[in-house]
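Narrative of activities, Objective 1.

The group set out to show that a structural description can be obtained from nothing but a protein's sequence at a throughput compatible with the screening campaign. Below is one input-output pair from the validation batch, recorded exactly as produced.
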Amino acid sequence: MNSMAVGVDIAKLVFQVHYVDQETGEIVNKPIKRAKFLEHFANRAPCLIGMEACGGAHHWARQLVKMGHDVKLIPAEFAKAFNIRNKNDAADARAIWLAVRQPGKPVAVKTETQQAMLALHRMRQQLIKFRTMQVNNLRGLLTEYGEVMGKSRAALDKAIPAVLERVAERLPAVVIDSLREQWNGLTKLDEQVAQIERRMREWKKEDKAVKAISEIPGVGLLTATAAVATMGDPKAVPEVR
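Output recorded for this entry:
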């Protein structure tokens, strides 16, 4: 007998499951509280469980796989094509149930280590975004007082000491102090970015896959770590001979 297919629409507090009972033929579409979700599948025969590849999906997939279930993470766009009703939890769970039974390429389930590396990439990206915003904000504020600086970070660092000295003659000290603090804050952001990159290099030393990809000409630290962290289970990638 084939494994029973189950569609799961995950959420923060209440999940929705949809399946057809193989013994009775009953169509089941019901909510399950988050705390009871794993308990619902704990004593069941291995199922084919489909979930959208969204926030939290990789965590639940890992837990269900440990119980012996086959889990497929489905791209949201693919599952959406099977939702023929108004969008709600019950309809979404049914759409996922339909989608998981169709041929298609699921999203590979990531390990906790891979997700941790992706978290480092996201934090680094966010810090760089903050830093760029800070530079642009300083340039914009000082332009209001007739001080124009180059667009690059190097141009800002070179010009701003003299700029602050000039505008200090006309502006209140509280403003000058705040501008100087904002400028000094860029150095702290630099240090945070550098620290994350050091941690990535440490991970590279311990991960064989990252080392292997890094040996490809033109592939650096960021590309190698992001590639390994994004691809999910390396065993799911077929070997090329």
